[in-house]
Amino acid sequence: METTESYLARKFEELKLLNDCLGSPLSLVCPRSVNEVIKRKFQLTASIRAEHELQDWMATETAWADPDIGVAGPFKFRYDYQRADLDVQGPSFYELGEEFTQETVYTGSGMAAISALLLASARVLGQAEVLVLPGTYGETLELIDGYARHLRKVILKGKIVDQGQAEKRQILLLDFCTPAGTFENMLGNSGRGLDLIIFDTTCFAAGSGRIRRVLRWTGQWNIPTVMVRSHNKLDSLGAEYGRLGSASFVNQTKSDLRARRFELTELLSETKTAIRLFGGAALPAHFPPFIGTDVYRSLTNRRVAAMVRNGRRTTRYFNSALKGRIREIQFTHGLYVTLNSTRPLDEAAARSAAAKMSEDLAQAGFPIRHAGSFGFDFAATEWSHDVLTDGYSVRLAVPDLPTELWDDLTKAIAAWWVLNNPGAVGT
């Protein structure tokens, strides 16, 4: 358990890290409440962004003054018109050690990264099957169904077909939304039949051991691997610093490249082209300047660990208090759960329930908001749609809060859900 006092002391360290990014740091004192932590953190990140704009006023879309002017903390940028050739020098968001090498391209969001990658795969792999696991992120599935026409979606319920038996090339999409048991079973499979792994790491801490486990598994089967990620979630200390995504093309340092059916360099080149043509390049102002230091990595790992611990406590409590009202509670990442009703939810009812629950519990003094993301210092609720089952639910994102306060909020959420029993409009 983490006491309120130790939590506030840890949050003070986060605030000092942000404050040190300012050219003229503010006078800080240790916060006295969760609400003060949340308010001060967003104020500081807004001040950092504003200061960046004032300092880099010449860095326009045409880079008319100096193409080498772009700097954000440890990151340096070089680009021509519209950042179509954006070159980024700076620390990796990941902590992979010397076991892996990577080349990363940055985009304006996580969806921009995976969109460019999937569309670029048409020119490298041609017609292919994309294997998806139950629970895969809904917007990614929408993208595949609506725009990646060269890919045939296959819901993977058993083992991967060996290469000699597969009619088309195979891409495996490993997603952070996959239930924990399904994810673990996947890593027990043979990867011999796969041509490419796309691994969405958005819900895993950048230093997560699970990321390294997946990369070791792909290395065991010598499968080309690309990690995609949205960075305005876990990588910005819960402050949503700016819209930023990436695609990292990973190589095992001891991998036998001769065994591969194609080289990642070709896919990397086509992805860069897709980013240029679709206008999906990243904004230099959206790179958090506090990335890369040992202090940052320690604080990030500690806050993600706190959320995972809180998530486990929520799982245990909801299992007994909300029987029959839970859609999914054992996600691989452990950072949120989805709630069902005893009556079916449609989209409107799920939206309304998420907003109403947040409003009622916030008025009762709890740190909870209706927000469409996760990884905050407050609980966040939002509607959720499972594209594979066409079912709707309410997603509860577990926050970084002191243990006792989160336990109280967990009980309040369960009580609200049972009392209100939201259901579909018109039923």
Q: How would you explain this protein's 3D organization?
A:
With 427 residues, this protein is an alpha/beta fold. The chain has three domains: 4-55, no CATH class; 75-286, 3-Layer(aba) Sandwich (Aspartate Aminotransferase, domain 2), CATH 3.40.640; 295-420, Aspartate Aminotransferase, domain 1. It has helices at 4-19, 34-55, 110-125, 138-147, 180-186, 209-220, 264-278, 294-321, 347-363, 403-420, and strands spanning 71-72, 75-78, 87-89, 100-107, 128-132, 151-155, 169-174, 196-200, 225-230, 245-252, 326-328, 336-339, 368-370, 379-386, 391-397. It has a seven-stranded mixed sheet with strand order 4-10-9-8-7-5-6. A five-stranded mixed sheet has the order 11-12-15-14-13, covered by helices on one side. A three-stranded antiparallel sheet has the order 1-2-3, with no helix packed on it. α1 runs parallel beside α2, α3 (110-125) packs across α7 (264-278) and α8 packs parallel to α10. The protein is globular. The two termini are 42 Å apart. The mean pLDDT is 88.
